C-alpha cells in the first residue's frame, strides 16, 4: 500500500509539470497560434527560477522569475509571428533551440549550487489517512492550484465573453477583426499567458520537482505538453487527465525498477515517449475528429488588411 501511495503521489507531481505547460499551450492554440518553443521556454524558466531561489531563498519568487522568463520569450515569439508574419513552426523550433543553448550557457555557474531547505507541504488531519493521505494530501500547493486552474480555464473559455472572443479569434480572426476586436493584441496576450505558464512549469521542475539545475533537465516534457493538447482535443479537462496519464507512465519506470523488474533501464526510460507516439498515432487515424475540435485558424497567419 505504501508503494502505491508513493506512485500515486509522484504521478500527481510529474503530471502537474505537464498539465501547467499544456494548459498554457492550449491557451495559445485556442487563439490560433502554435508555439513549438515550449521546451526552450521551460528550460530558460527553469534556470531563471532556480537562480532566483538560490539568491533569494524564496521559492515563490522563483516561480515569478520563471513566469517572467517564459512570458518575455513568448512576447518575442509573438512579435515575430504576429506582427512580422514569420512562420509559426519555424520560429517555434528556433525558440526551442535557442532556449536549450541559452539555458545551458547561463546555467554553467549553477550546476553545483544548492537550494535552501524548503519545508514540506501537507494538509493537517488528511495527511495521515491510509493510502489517500500520503498519495493526495502531501503535495505542493501548486498541484492543487493546477487542478483549480484547469476548472477555471473551462469556465473562462466556455462561460465568459472574454473566452468566447478568444475562441473566435482562433476560429475566424477575419470575422473577429470585422467586429472590431484587436486580433493581434488578443493573440499576443494569449501567447504571453501561455509562455508564463510554460515558465511556471519550468520553474516548478528546477525548484520543487527535482530541486537542482542540470543542462537540458526538462528532458522533452515541452514536446509531450505539445502532444497533450492534440491528445486532449483542445479541452482543458482532458489536458489534465492526459497529463496525469503521462505522468503515471513516467513514474512507472521508477516503480518497476524499485520492484526489481528485470527490464533494461533504457527501455523503461522510453515509456513516456513511446506512449506519446502511440497516442498520437491512434488519434491521427480519425482526422475528421481532429478537424472538428481543432481551432480552424490554428497555425495560420492573420493580416489585418485581409
Automatic annotation (TrEMBL):
UniProt entry keywords in alphabetical sequence: Cell membrane, Membrane, Transmembrane, Transmembrane helix
Cell compartment(s), UniProt: Cell membrane
Transmembrane segments annotated in the record for this chain: 6-26, 33-54, 60-82, 89-111, 141-158, 188-212, 218-234, 241-261, 267-284
A GO MF label: transmembrane transporter activity
Chief site of localization: membrane
GO cellular component, as recorded: plasma membrane
Topology in the lipid bilayer: Multi-pass membrane protein
PANTHER family for the chain: ABC TRANSPORTER PERMEASE PROTEIN, SUGAR ABC TRANSPORTER INTEGRAL MEMBRANE PROTEIN-RELATED
UniProt-recorded name of the protein: ABC transporter permease
Naturally occurring in which organism (per UniProt): Simplicispira suum
